[in-house]
Amino acid sequence: MHVRKAMRRKGAMVVLPLVLLVGALAIATTGLGSTGAKHAKAAGPITIGKGGGFGEIYRAKVSTLAKTLFQARLLPVTPAARNIALAGLGRSERPVNQALALQCWKNNGCSTGTGGKLTVAYIEQFGENVYRQMSKMEFILQALTYKDVGKIIYKSAHSDLNQGIADFKAAIAQKVSAIVTYPDYGDAMLPVMKEATDAGIPVATYAWGYVTGPGKNYLTVVGEYTCNLGKAFATAMNTQVKSGDIAFMGGFPGNPLSEGWQKCEKPALNSNIDVVATEPTNWDPSKVQSVVAGILAAHPNIKGWSYEYGGGMALGAVAAYKAAGKPFNPVLTLRTDDVRMGCEYNQLKKTNPGLKMYYYTSGNTQIRVALTAAMMKLKGARIPPTIVFPIALQDQDKRDSCVKGYPQDASATSLIPLSLLHQMYPS
User: Fold this and answer.
1) Which of 276, 210, 217 has its CA nearest to residue 246?
2) Is the pTM of this model over 0.90?
3) Which one, of 181, 187, 184, 182, lies nearest residue 201 by Cα?
4) C-alpha–C-alpha distance, residues 160 and 171, integer Å
5) Does residue 80 contact residue 382 with C-beta atoms inside 8 Å?
6) Which of 8, 56, 226, 285 might form a disulfide with 316, Cβ 3.0–4.6 angstroms?
7) What is the tens place of the pLDDT at every residue in 296-350?
8) Predicted confidence (pLDDT) per residue in 361-417, tens digit
9) What's the rounded Cα separation, in Å, for the pair 143 and 120?
10) Which of 129, 125, 146 lies closest to 56, judged by CA?
11) Residue 156 predicted with pLDDT over 80
12) Residue 323's CB: how many other CB atoms inside 10 A?
């Protein structure tokens, strides 16, 4: 429902052909997984973009873009969205007080010490996994690049919709300057998002947190177009599985990320492929284990799994297969590039030669672009209702997501400094 509405918008219609092309070709090609350094050397220029406005510079290093997007030029197609993405990702290169960032992360907010008059808030209904905690740090680091920001607020409702609504209302009452969110409960969050918008507070979502009416009911939605993510998943399944049973898992029931790709993957599958289960997991690894165990009991010949959360797959699905005494030989299509899943795959592949894995960037840095869009709005910029990144799935056999030196639960496409990641997740 949400994604069909998004396609009618001009920006999404322009980007659609490119996203489909990139999503389809990435599975078949071998060069998409080059490191940032190698890609920067091949690309030639040190930076991409030019110009600026509304307090921003529309430019980022090729190495930065290649690290977080897989390829430096996998940027939004429309000029306005592209400029905001370059400004947001380029800000990650600015030095900030990492000790303050760590303190702010641990304390769920802080004063920045700049004396700035703006307060920015990251408000979500669920923040209790590593993915969300990394997004929180990306948000904090981005906020610290703005001298106008004097206070940073973070709230998680711990999977309670009513608390999530209350947190939004509290932020509105505090007259915060801008809000970034992921709407875990979809359109159920729309009334408070609209309330904030009506109060003059720009609200931006990331990870394609699409709810009805971006550009009207709230400022903008940032992320990959999830319908095309589903079609890219289907291409992998059609190529590798060809026929048989597969299963889908998602996060919270009705969340826009899971809903978007699932609705588009299923009709794009070969007629010989049967989706025998579609189950929510709340992105909780322990629930992943019980869900996978239940599906395997009913359908023991599952050939493939589509899911967003690689870390949850590594911690939950692998354990369920071991408990069932089954070899781990499915085809996996995942949205995140968690180091743990990459390392687990490399070990499992030694005794499970049929195992295949395709993945997308975790996209934690999309939250930086969302915050920058909101900050630009405060300075009078016209912000497009969608800021859409193209999709290029990576083949684990060609681009290893088990990146040495990174914490197991992290993503190497994050722009959090590695030294800071180790402080967040000490081994």
Assistant:
1) 276
2) no
3) 181
4) 17
5) yes
6) 285
7) 999 999 999 999 999 999 999 999 999 999 999 999 999 999 999 999 999 999 9
8) 999 999 999 999 999 999 999 999 999 999 999 999 999 999 999 999 899 999 999
9) 7
10) 146
11) yes
12) 12
- Strand 273-280 vs strand 302-307: parallel, antiparallel, or unpaired? unpaired
Q: Which amino acid is at 110?
A: C
Task: Name the one residue in this structure whose structure tokens are 């195992």.
Answer: 355
Backbone Cα Rg of the chain: 20
Give residue 206's pLDDT: 98
CB 40, CB 64: distance < 8 Å: no
Give the helix/strand (H/E) hosting 53.
strand 52-53
- Asked if 118 contacts 84 with a C-beta cutoff of 8 angstroms, the reply is no
H helix intervals, 44-189: 62-69, 79-90, 98-106, 130-143, 161-173
Tokens of 253: 């029931």
Residues 136, 131: Cα–Cα separation, whole Å: 9
Question: Residue 244 — left, alpha, or beta (φ > 0 → left; ψ -120 to 50 → alpha)?
Answer: left
Q: Is the dihedral of CA 102, 103, 109, 114 positive or negative?
A: negative
Question: Three-state SS across 307-371?
Answer: ECCHHHHHHHHHHHHHHHCCCCCCEEEECCCEHHHHHHHHHHHCCCCCCEEEECCCCCCHHHHHH
Q: Which tokens in the block code for residue 160?
A: 């309670």
Tokens of 180: 């970034």
Nearest of 224, 201, 210, 248 to residue 26 by alpha carbon? 224
pLDDT of 32: 30
Rounded mean pLDDT of 165-181?
A: 98
Query: CA of 284: how far to CAs of 7, 210, 309, 310, 409, in Å?
Result: 31, 22, 9, 11, 13
Residues in the chain: 427
